[in-house]
Amino acid sequence: MSEMKTKKVVVLYGGRSAEREVSLWTGAAIHKALASRGYDAHLLDVELDVAARLRELGAEAVFIGLHGRFGEDGCIQGLLESMGLPYTGSGVLSSALAMDKVASKQVFDARGIPTPAWVSMRPEKARKLQAEDLPFPLPVVVKPASEGSSVGVHIARDQAALTAACEDAARFKGDVILERYHKGREVQVAVLDDEALGAIEIVPAAEFYDYQAKYKSGGTTRYLFPAPLPEPLYKATLDAALAAHRALGCSGATRTDLIVSDDGDLRVLEVNTLPGMTETSLLPKIAAGVGLDFADLCERILAGASLKA
Asked: Which of 40, 159, 226, 241 has its CA at 20 to 30 Å from residue 257's CA atom?
């Protein structure tokens, strides 16, 4: 019998970030899977009294099903460390680094991990940005530096679109990041327990795999697993994702987003330390492709719950 089956496991979900809706789906799916395997699992929607609620529930281990700010950025991880509660996923520092696209880009550049050329700026400067002031030509990808699920992400091909994209990205807290646009295939790689499981290609109906395509597409997005790449290039995507995972000091499960061009050039966009766990999410799709069903995946992730500090 798994040691975790003797413990009271609390699944944290919901929260107060822009990704609350996705987190509600993630947490509910995780809770259902764990309960089906006989775990003493409980759902907890995260509010300001989360520490008191965890004590009231008698939590002995925590499965983090949160996304975005206060869940994916090291905040909840720090709280759980201070409470002495083992938890799933990456620790405080690696979570914070991965969530902050500026910090993670700096790590990638320092480690020689290929990533698009980029620049960041304060929201007030981004709102006034002119295309000629960029260090690379249009089109560019504009995004908030610390949001996930492609919230606030746009491709700007002219000045009007650049202004509108910067205005939207500036609504969120923190810097605005602008990346050189690389046309190519959208590939995502899952890493579990320091092993790259596989790569999947996303073929969205829209221009790129945005929030709508991820969670509201109604089946119009196509997923190709394994990603139909030449074997050396497929292996290169796995190696790049694992290198990014390790460079940020991640643990547990992560999902790395990449762009792969027709000439074989690949670029790491970001690492997600708390990947979505909904029926349309990519980590479960990749896991299923290598013979790991959803409940098995949840058990594997939970088995790695620990204190990292």
From this structure: 159
* CA-wise closest residue to 99 among 135, 155, 143: 143
| Residue 113: C-alpha distances to residues 31, 39, 108, 109, 212 (Å) | 36, 39, 5, 6, 29
Residue 217 is among the residues annotated as catalytic for this protein: no
Residue 158 placed within a domain: yes
Active-site residue, 281 included: yes
pLDDT averages per 10-residue partition of the chain, 309 residues:
85 92 96 97 96 98 95 96 98 97 97 98 96 97 80 92 96 93 97 98 75 58 96 98 99 98 95 91 97 96 95
Q: What is the mean pLDDT of the chain?
A: 93
Which residues define the annotated binding site for Mg(2+)?
A: 257, 270, 272
User: Domain containing 255 — which CATH number?
Assistant: 3.30.470.20
Catalytic residue selected from 90, 146, 149, 251 = 149
Active site residue 167: no
- Tell if the pTM clears 0.85, that is, is over it: yes
Q: Is residue 284 part of a domain?
A: no
